[in-house]
Amino acid sequence: MARPDDSVSLSALARLGFDDLGEAAACLTELADLLGRERSAVLTGADAADPDAAVRGMLRVARRDPAPLAALLDGGEAQRRAWRVFGASEGLADFFLRHPEQLSVLAEPSDTLPTADDLRARLLDAVDAVDGFAGAGDDAALVAVRVAYRRNLAAIVAFDVMHDAPVEVLADVAAALADAAGAALEASLAVARSRLRDSIPEREIAAVRFAIIGMGKAGARELNYVSDVDVIFVGGTADEEMVSEARAIDIATRLARETMRGLDGIEVEPPLWEVDAALRPEGKQGALVRSLASHLAYYDRWAKSWEFQALLKARPLAGDAELGAEYIAAVQPKIWSSAARENFVDSVQRMRERVKEHIDPEDAPYQLKLGEGGLRDIEFTVQLLQLVHGLTDASLRTRGTLESLDALVEGGYIGRTEASTFADDYRVLRLMEHRLQLRELSRTHLMPRTPGGLRVLARSTGLAESGDGIWARWESVRREVREIHTRLFYRPLLSAVAALPEGERSLSTAQAHDRLAAIGFRDPAGALRHIGALTSGLSRKATIQRHLMPVMVRWFADGSDPDYGLIAFRRISERLGNTHWFLRMLRDSSGAAESLTRLLSSSRYIGELMEWIPESVAWLDSTELLRPRGGAALYEEARAIQTRHDTIGDALRAVRALRRRELLRTAMGGVLDVLTIEDVATALTDITEATIQAALRAVQREVVPPEDDALDFAVIAMGRFGGAELGFGSDADILYVYDANGVDPGRAQALATKIVAGLREHVTDHRLPLDLDAGLRPEGRNGPVVRSIEAYAEYYRRWSLSWEAQALLRARGVAGSAKLIARFTELADTIRYPSAVDLQGTREIKRIKARVEGERLPQGADPRRHLKLGPGTLSDVEWLVQLIQLQHAHAVPGLRTTSTLGALAAAVEAGLIPEEAAERLREAWLLASRLRSAITILTGRTSDVLPADRRELDAIARILGYPDRSATELEEEYLGVTRRARKAFEQEFYG
Predict the structure, then answer these.
(1) Quick check: 340 and 391 in contact, CB under 8 A?
(2) Rounded CA gap, 500 and 553, in Å?
(3) Residue 343 pLDDT more than 80?
């Protein structure tokens, strides 16, 4: 037996992509025999996606009628085209099996797509249509429509599969498929008119106006190979005397049913696809055909939000083009005002979520269309952005997904990078969907689950070299789409734009001035100037600002000082210039724009810092960036700063910048409710410690010569600093201590004094003062600012007063020599935790407390409103806790803490104070602490007095999370809390 030609050996077949080599060889042999060709000649151009399916399909056709196939397989371009089409679609192979004569379509050039006019003419010619009526209305005419459609479908497929880059022509192919569907509907309608002539006079049928409106992908000219064609039918009369409106609607309904049956009914030639009219008013329960007036009445009174979203892609597809255009013109204003409906954005978001919920869990990982990261995520995102921003921007009123993405980019509503990624991913997903549907001409949106199916998909799309590669591409696209969809589809700005009152979307200058005044701007003319400066011009930055500004102005107006918020925003915008991330983040981030307006319109402290540190806006993109970085991280950063600078001045300028940055971070986190008051206190303490530590290291290197390196120096935190309870604007109470450690005592004192002077000089920050207050040192302001450890020991042994022991309760080493800090702590413990209670000292503390209340209050101040010295406020709680510590800390280890609230909790646990009283004291201490910080945050100035001004009090309440206009509520709560705390204090302190 002769050996077959090498070109068709099994290894050659494997190289061509055949899978079942034995069956393929047998099929090729039979096919070659039927065609009268050499097997090698038959294989010319055999670079099909699925060559096994291709040869099986051609063999089936050849068995029925080899002549048309033999004419096609001429060794040239037509043969290559045949292999590609048969290898891409077993469904078309079945069509050619039924109609071998239609193979001639593959002999025609495939370098261009048929136009919409070409397709309409071909389909109408197939049924001999004249003036809208087919030559016949019988079943043969319906078969002719379906055969003509599939012949033209084969021409579109040939163009698609022969193209070197099918992903690039995806949009053109989808448009041609939609045009073919419209042509098929037109031809089927012509047959329907002729069919009705048997029961209705032709003149009446001709007088009926009947339009088929394409919806969904058919309307947008982005149809799949196999998809339901969504339609809405509109009817009416062209001549009321010839046929009444009611009669016309009845005839139009019969035309609609016959048109649908012509395409999806059971006939000799299989159905094309389902014609789905379920998107009509009232869905499947509603009338199949309505007049234009009836449609509009329904949309005005009863339509739900999703119905307007569905109308977004509506387009006249077949029938009366003039009536179709009237319908589109009439519904357009309703579509583009629908986003102003209450909860519109939420309803669209919920609808997308419901679609996901109904996916079979087993199908979810394979769902190209409905699953997470699938086509619906892209389509819903684009449509929602269009509907919301299309309220005011007519350039967004487009139908197709890709053209709409281009419009959104051009308008500045979506970033170029994101839009490009979305568009690329959309094309990839649609190409995969096309190839999967083309395989059997069946409606599917599921990725293959077999290695063979994935391999064929990879070859047919050209997107990967293997089955594993196409799956990896699918997963990658899915992740990209899901991430962008989540960020854009759920961006808070959408709900805010949709909720804007109609009068605020577009205003004249005079109207804008009045509106700004009405919503709370005190200087509307100034606000208009700032808005104009931000939004004027043709740059992309100005375009995005124009989109943001209507919503942001509303958010500014919700704050306590919208005028300041707006001008601060302008300054920050100008400082950031054309920084690519700034406006993109405000537009796309989850809540960044609203958070920024809240911060700027409620806090001058934050606004001024953000003007100096505009890059801090980026922190609003993530709550994690608003959390304190921790003492260890700050310590390491400060050390790194010092190694990078040659002079102490440069190094400590950088350290001061670090402090400002971290204070801003903490303030932003506090106002945005990311941090509790305890978190804030810890963060402020860590920042202050890191600053002092860095300054001390630098100053010691500068001041102390190498020969005096033995000198030890330390900084001891006192007061709220020692208790790690700092608030915004708090001073840093400290003591300075040194140990000569062999250095001449006089020189040691001089060096220590120079260190203190250097510290004060270099931590001084005129923008954000840090006051190192040594007023709690022995002898107060009359004593030396720095002492040796021995001098402290001698003083406390001989002269210390009860208030000095009380002050030491919060002494804590924070910078300098660890050995010296340990010695000072040991010394302090002997003073602050005495083994025996000094009754005289206790009486003295109580006497001083009473005197302080009377003497230290500012002249004219209302004692009840003083947050530090007033009844039931900070000093009451702290003095009571410190008295308990002096009396019992020696015996109760839990009381040996510098924390006020920690010691209070320990006192409750030890039974030294009733739990109810402690809770009242704790509540008052926390509220007073929050109020002190809030005043500083609001005004940028430190104050211990609760303001009486209602506007200022309301602003403070907002910072603390109270509802708008809560000045009275806050005031009453504060007075009530402190009154109860004072009662508890008096019972426990004075007995």
Answers:
(1) yes
(2) 11
(3) no
268, 280 in Cβ contact below 8 A? no
Mean pLDDT of all residues belonging to the chain: 90
Asked whether residue 629 carries a pLDDT value surpassing 70, the answer given is yes
- AA letter at 949: D
- List, in order, residues 6 or more apart from 979 with CB less than 8 Å away: 871, 872
Report which secondary-structure segment, H or E, holds 813: strand 812-816
Environment class of 389 (CB within 10 Å of its CB; exposed 0-12, middle 13-18, buried 19+): buried
Of the CA atoms within 13 Å of residue 530, those in its CB half-sphere come to: 25
- Give the amino acid at 729: G
- pTM, whole model, 2 decimals? 0.70
H helices present in 856-962, as ranges: 874-888, 900-909, 915-939, 950-959
For residue 6, what pLDDT is reported? Answer: 44
Average pLDDT for 172-195? 97
Residue 531 token pair: 């808005």
Listed residue (988, 631, 655, 679) closest to 812, CA to CA: 631
Q: Could you tell me which of 110, 6, 8, 123 has the C-alpha nearest to residue 55? A: 8
- Dihedral sign (CA 339, 343, 345, 350): negative
- Which tens digit of pLDDT belongs to each residue from 353-380? 878 888 888 888 999 998 889 999 999 8
Measured CA distances, 82 to 36, 480, 511, 550 (Å): 17, 36, 68, 58
**Site of tokens 């509540």:** 923
**Rounded mean pLDDT of 878-898?**
94
Q: How far apart are CA 384 and CA 268, in angstroms?
A: 43
Q: What's residue 538's pLDDT? A: 66
Query: What per-residue string of b and e applies to 171-181 under the rule 16 or more CB within 10 Å gives b?
Result: bbbbbbbbbbb
Cβ-in-10-Å burial (0-12, 13-18, 19+) of 893 comes to exposed
Say whether pLDDT at 63 is over 50.
yes
Q: Cα–Cα distance between 776 and 716 in angstroms, integer?
A: 11
For residue 814, give the nearest of 894, 895, 696 by alpha carbon. 696
Cα gap 51→579, rounded to integer Å: 53
Pick from 929, 934, 940: nearest CA to 610: 940
Q: What are phi and psi for residue 716, nearest 5 degrees?
A: -110, 120
89-102 in b/e form (b: 16+ CB < 10 A) is bbbbbbbbbebbeb
Coil, strand, or helix at residue 487? helix
DSSP 8-state class, residue 359: S
DSSP secondary structure of 228-240: -EEEEEEEEES-T
* Phi and psi, residue 210, nearest 5°: -145, 115
Encoding tokens for residue 545? 């600002």
Residues 714, 704 contacting (CB under 8 angstroms)? no
Instruction: Report the C-alpha gap between 162 and 85 in whole angstroms.
Output: 9
CB 704 within 8 A of CB 694: no
Please give the Cα distance from 186 to 184 (Å, whole number): 5
Reported residue count of the chain is 991
Radius of gyration of the chain (CA): 41
pLDDT in tens, 799-842: 877 878 889 999 999 999 999 999 999 999 999 998 887 788 78
Amino acid letter, residue 703: V
CB 813 within 8 A of CB 696: no
Burial bucket for residue 843 (CB in 10 Å: 0-12, 13-18, 19+): exposed
**Chain position carrying tokens 């394409």:** 214
| pLDDT tens digit sequence for 497-546 | 555 555 555 555 666 677 677 777 888 888 888 888 887 766 777 777 77
In whole angstroms, what is the distance from residue 318 CA to residue 211 CA?
6
Q: Output the CA–CA distances (angstroms, integers) from residue 938 to 232, 617, 620, in the order listed.
A: 58, 18, 19
458 touches 464 (CB < 8 A): yes
Strands 732-739 vs 786-788: parallel, antiparallel or unpaired: parallel
